[in-house]
Design a protein that fits this description.
single chain, 288 residues, DNA polymerase, domain 1, 3 strands
């Protein structure tokens, strides 16, 4: 009923990305289809009973609790929007409790594995290839795949050794670069125009998400037997390694562009083995 207005609100006011807006819209369309299949329409007087029936329907169709929670989150945002524009007084989801889910921890690569990855680019011909730049930026800065894809040469501030990154909700942040990466990018971008994308396809267009995935998968698979390999694994690897080497968690939060510290604290769970090892080695009673 108010789907178009809601979509405009997400784009214009919340500044959500096209992918996020499309995901919200798709979830609402699915709920609308479900209601229509039961003889109801998506209107502002929807009761929680209908939403609960949808959750049961999704669960019976083997949709994971994580996916169901995400879909319900889209509904929450929609009904909250209706409350804000005073179309309804209360959201039907105000007392809803999310389904229990298993916490997912992405296993990062260890430092030895990352050294082996960079050994693959040791020759002078390979060091400045697009593949090498992709791996280096993802591991050196912890950028998300979408952030890397949208990076332009003009976003690289060589003298200050930082890059300007457009993150989620169109929030800009400055991400530091290692001197080695700065040197490599200076050479790599020598023939790239200032306003051009840093990473391009063979046709000169912006590189695709699938290309980034294929590159990461190709090189990481050659040195690791981990079942899950993706650009996001390199983001986790970056955060875990600098945390394990003494970086402050608040600094990591700013570099990664996390909205809250809670998102960054997942890396402290990964660090637990290191903490336990230090504890066992250094506690006076254990030393005895």
């Amino acid at each position: 009923m108010y789907l178009d207005k809601f979509k405009n609100y997400l784009e214009a006011e919340k500044k959500y990305s096209i992918l996020t807006v499309n995901a919200y819209t798709k979830d609402l369309e699915e709920f609308k289809d479900f209601l229509e299949s039961t003889g109801t329409s998506l209107n502002k007087n929807i009761e929680y009973t209908f939403i609960r029936n949808w959750i049961v329907f999704l669960s019976k169709n083997k949709i994971s609790p994580n996916s169901i929670n995400r879909k319900v989150s889209s509904l929450k945002a929609y009904f909250k929007f209706l409350v804000n524009i005073k179309e309804i007084k209360k959201s039907p989801l105000r007392n809803h409790t999310s389904l229990r889910t298993k916490s997912k921890v992405v296993n990062p690569l260890n430092e030895t594995e990352m050294k082996e990855v960079f050994e693959l680019f040791k020759t002078s011909e390979k060091e400045l290839t697009r593949d090498s730049i992709i791996i280096d930026i993802l591991y050196s800065t912890g950028l998300r795949r979408a952030e890397l894809i949208n990076l332009k040469k003009s976003d690289i501030y060589f003298d200050d050794q930082v890059m300007k990154v457009l993150g989620k909700r169109n929030k800009e942040r400055l991400v530091p670069m290692l001197p080695g990466l700065v040197k490599k990018l200076k050479l790599y971008t020598k023939n790239i125009k200032e306003d051009s994308f840093l990473l391009q396809s063979k046709n000169g267009n912006k590189i695709s998400p699938s290309t980034i995935y294929r590159v990461v998968n190709k090189y990481l698979r050659s040195i690791s037997t981990k079942t899950k390999i993706s650009p996001h694994v390199l983001r986790h690897t970056f955060a875990t390694h600098i945390l394990n080497n003494g970086a402050d968690i608040n600094s990591i939060k700013e570099i990664l562009g996390h909205k809250s510290l809670a998102s960054t604290q997942i890396y402290t769970k990964i660090k637990i083995p290191t903490i336990v090892n230090d504890y066992m080695k250094n506690h006076p009673r254990q030393k005895k």
